Amino acid sequence: MTTSVPHLWQGEFVDDAEAGRRLAELPELTGRVVARPLPTDVVIGACATVSAQLTDPASALHLRLAAHLPADEAGAVLADLAAALTRQALERKLRRELGRLRPERLTRPDARRTVYEAWAPVGLLVHIAPGNAATVAPLSVVEGLLAGNLNVLKTSGSDTPLAVELLAALCAADPTGLIGERVVALRFPSSRREWLRALCGQADAIAVWGGEDAVRSVSELAPPGCRVVEWGHRISFAYLTRDAAADVTTLDALAEDVCRFEQQACSSPQVVYLDTEDRAEVFAFAGTFAERLAKVSDARRAPLPGTAEQAEITTVEQLARLERHLGLTRVISAGDGTWRVLADTRPALTASPLHRSVWVKPLPRRAVTATLRPMRRYLQTAAIGGGPADVAELSRAVLAAGVTRVTPVGSMLEGYEGEPHDGVYALQRYSRRVSVRAGEAAFRTVPCLDDLVAPPVPAPPPAGPLLGKEDVQRALASLPDVYAHLYFRSGGSTGAPALSVFTCDDYDNQMGAAADGLLAAGFDPARDRAANLFYCGGMYGSFISFFSILERLNATQVPMAAGPDHAQIADALVRHRVDTVFGMPSFLWQLFHAEADRLRAYGGIRTVFYGGEHFTAEQRRVLTDEFGVQVIRSAAYGSTDLGPLGYQCTASAGAVHHVLTDLHTLEILDPHEDVPVTPGEPGRLVFTSRARTGQRLERYEIGDLGRAVAGPCPCGSHTPRLELLGRYGDVVRVGTYFFNYRRFVQTAQERLGYRGEVQLLVAPGSGRERLTVRLDEAYASDADAARAAFVTGVAEVASAEAEELLAFAVEVVPGSAFERTAASGKLRTVVDLRRQARSHTHGVRLHPAE
């Protein structure tokens, strides 16, 4: 229901008396509010909710706002608002204007230096909105929110409550309350000087729409140092070459630009310039264009101008008719006064009286810049009609004269998402660029200062059904091509390879987050020399992703990729003085042993960053003791479907990772029910992607098990931590017993001193199923001794054998005999050869004790 209370103050509707009282408290309020950062994803989430409501004609918000608009305009206006508030539009705006999706975070623009930069709010941002554009006021406030400001909107007392009610809906759509505390909307006339003075006198920046008088009036009230952002009146024009002026299609498109919105928009053409000095051509073109304008105007009903507007039109037209006697002008107008073409032989830019009134003037291209430059502060859009070379040449000329945007004829009033307005980006005008220079030694592994201050603002809890791999793959069939820029396939280590697609922007955002995580893990792009030895090819993404990550870090890298020629790789490591290697543990383990003598003699590999698998404790010991490796750490926790999910800091041990909360929301659900676990208990990991435009994954059950790690991290970061406990596939059911792959690995290390790879094979048998453990002959020689160790160390083996439920064996084989995935080279930890392996293993949960 429409409120009768005129003002909105921090989510609450208040009357004049209360608003006046609170105005005196603005300075204190500003200091209190802007001290708490406003994450841009909070704003985007609330705007997306409101956009969905505006898209639905039956929603209460749509019906309420439509009542404030003319019936024939309501649908288009609300559709424009809905489009501007979509997640895609706002994310594109942030990337274009402020460089990234979370510009408010103090991060390192150059990873080699411990210098942090961010876009900070100006503070109290006052918006003096126009009365003739319904969408301008609320969208300006949204821009102010994206920049993190406390926003006070002033609309005219005669305006409808549309802006106020839309902003109230935006506040209500934010469960954190951070938006509500940053929005004040007041409806009062500019004649109420005491209120206007109270607003402007305390502002850090003022955004004002209107003519010179309005801007001057506001500027006089602004305190010293206040940034006045002028969105004043502008003049736009079309420029036609001879060929374009003779093209009927071009003239019809130009006539459409003249008639749309009755030239009320700043981008509407008020003048048509011809590339000529011949007055006869000007008058002839005016007659031709008048015919096309009459045709288009007849098809578009023209609203009657007001009395003042009609008086101006009459004055300009009559003056032009009088100047005809001097040979300067010609006037062609409609009999009913709905349009007029004013031909003038003088090239100086002249404002039109609007309402389908357009000047036609000569301006040879050699004189474009000199003629128009005196009016540079008023110029906005130029539509250029001509060939490609003409457009290129004339664009440079009009831009030098002061024009801020060039368009094709017929699309002057159209724009694109992220387009600058009047030559500037609004978000940059509503922000400050700030920096912190920190000590190199203490901050080398700190990618973001904000993480040292407080935990991230909790995202709204995800809702809806859980998704599995099959659900995601089915949804891909209906994904529009506009969201499918990059195609990747998983390695297939847990089943058939799965397809995943990303937009280029989403991929870039994810690689940026993973790069920050690598800094936290101790990688130093200023000193480390890295070799990328992940697998490449077949649409597998590990090598490509880490190439992008290292590139973003401006790191020195040798992009070799994993391959069968271990000697060649080792030679490159030594020759290029590599001290840090990235790759799969299984491949790196093969490499170190195949080229053991050379790499031991080199002794220069100090750091190993791995992904996709884990090194065993014994393997870590060998790399450290025999090869001189000092650091062995996860390069990232992630998946092909979701991208990077977490990172290890220098204080993380084992499988503990910080969650990349900028990208995802994590839920840990009970092993048997779809409810959250008690904090610290193990459960199924369910991720919701929050910063992904295309293939959005909501509540995706990734197939991993883990538990939340409580308490502060010694690294100082407040981002939540997670301990990985394995995958569903690590547990297999054989002969009614559940066998945990990790128990076999642990037993081999503890009882046999084994340091190689372990693989389980499950196969059907004639009477009972067979479970076979494969060991690498390079590290185990006695299969019988190994069998006895497993029977003793894994209680389920002895029990199942005693009950004759399985046949158990140990194979000692060459390393080349282990089965691996074709794309990633990962070891297949469990190879289930039974026909219904999926039904046997699906849904099994891993208990932490296992």
Characterization of this structure:
The chain is an alpha/beta fold and 850 residues long. Among the domains are: 7-232, Aldehyde Dehydrogenase, Chain A, domain 1, CATH 3.40.605; 235-407, Aldehyde Dehydrogenase, Chain A, domain 2 (3-Layer(aba) Sandwich); 728-841, GMP Synthetase, Chain A, domain 3 (2-Layer Sandwich), CATH 3.30.300. It is built from 29 helices and 36 strands. The protein has a 7-stranded mixed β-sheet with strand order 2-1-6-5-4-7-8, with helices on both faces. It has a 7-stranded mixed β-sheet with strand order 11-12-13-10-9-14-15, sandwiched between helices. Strand 22 (607-610), helix 25 (617-627) and strand 23 (631-634) form a beta-alpha-beta unit. Helix 3 crosses helix 8 (162-172) and helix 12 (248-259) packs across helix 13 (279-299). The model is unreliable at 835-850 (pLDDT under 50).
Chain-wise SSE layout:
Blueprint: E1 7-9, E2 12-14, H1 16-23, H2 26-34, H3 40-55, H4 60-66, H5 71-84, H6 87-98, E3 115-121, E4 124-128, H7 136-146, E5 150-155, H8 162-172, E6 183-187, H9 193-201, E7 205-210, H10 212-221, E8 227-232, E9 235-240, H11 242-245, H12 248-259, E10 269-274, H13 279-299, H14 307-323, E11 329-333, E12 340-344, E13 357-362, H15 368-372, E14 379-385, H16 388-401, E15 405-407, H17 426-429, E16 431-437, H18 440-443, H19 469-476, E17 486-489, E18 499-502, H20 504-520, E19 529-532, H21 542-552, E20 556-558, H22 566-575, E21 580-583, H23 585-594, H24 596-602, E22 607-610, H25 617-627, E23 631-634, E24 637-639, E25 643-647, E26 656-659, E27 664-669, E28 683-689, E29 700-709, E30 721-727, E31 731-734, E32 737-740, H26 741-752, E33 758-763, E34 769-776, H27 783-793, H28 795-802, E35 806-813, E36 830-832, H29 837-841
Parallel strand pairs: 4-5, 4-7, 5-6, 7-8, 9-10, 9-14, 10-13, 12-13, 14-15, 19-20, 19-21, 21-22, 22-23, 33-36, 34-35
Antiparallel strand pairs: 1-2, 1-6, 3-16, 11-12, 17-18, 24-25, 25-26, 26-30, 27-28, 28-29, 29-30, 31-32, 33-34
Helix pairs in contact: 3-5, 3-8, 12-13, 20-21, 26-27, 27-28
